[in-house]
């Protein structure tokens, strides 16, 4: 478990923590838990801020994955077109040969 205090730059600390957790587990993404200084869960305003941060992080991940998903869909569409063309060609040749 790592601790992030007020003296550190939050963005770089979160990056390092997330990268370390992902590398250790072999995962694509990492989860970051948020606790108050006393080790207890957050309440009130702190909890709302953590939820908002998590929502924004999730939206950022979805936005980052969108181009890759579009490329993957384009590949699938192209493969379907090639499959249809090949099937049509095979059927034509079967009818020509009798």
Biggest β-sheet, characterized? none
Q: Which whole number gives the mean pLDDT?
A: 77
Please tell me how large the radius of gyration is: 25 Å
Instruction: State the helix count.
Output: 2
Coarse morphology = rod-shaped
Give the CA-CA distance, first to last residue. Answer: 72 Å
Structural class: mainly alpha
Order of helices and strands: HH
Helix content: over 70%
Report the sheet-strand fraction.
under 5%
How many extended strands? 0
Which spans have pLDDT < 50 for at least 5 consecutive residues? none
Note down, in words, how this protein is organized.
By secondary structure, the protein is mainly α. It has a domain of 64 residues. The protein contains two helices and no strands. It starts with 9 loop residues before the first helix and ends with a helix.
């Amino acid at each position: 478990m790592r601790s992030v205090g007020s003296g550190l730059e939050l963005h770089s600390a979160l990056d390092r923590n997330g990268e370390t957790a992902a590398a250790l587990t072999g995962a694509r993404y990492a989860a970051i838990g948020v606790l108050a200084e006393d080790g207890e869960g957050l309440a009130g305003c702190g909890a709302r801020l953590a939820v908002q941060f998590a929502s924004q992080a999730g939206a950022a991940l979805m936005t980052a994955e969108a181009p890759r998903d579009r490329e993957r869909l384009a590949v699938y569409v192209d493969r379907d077109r090639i499959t249809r063309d090949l099937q049509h060609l095979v059927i034509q040749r079967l009818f020509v040969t009798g």
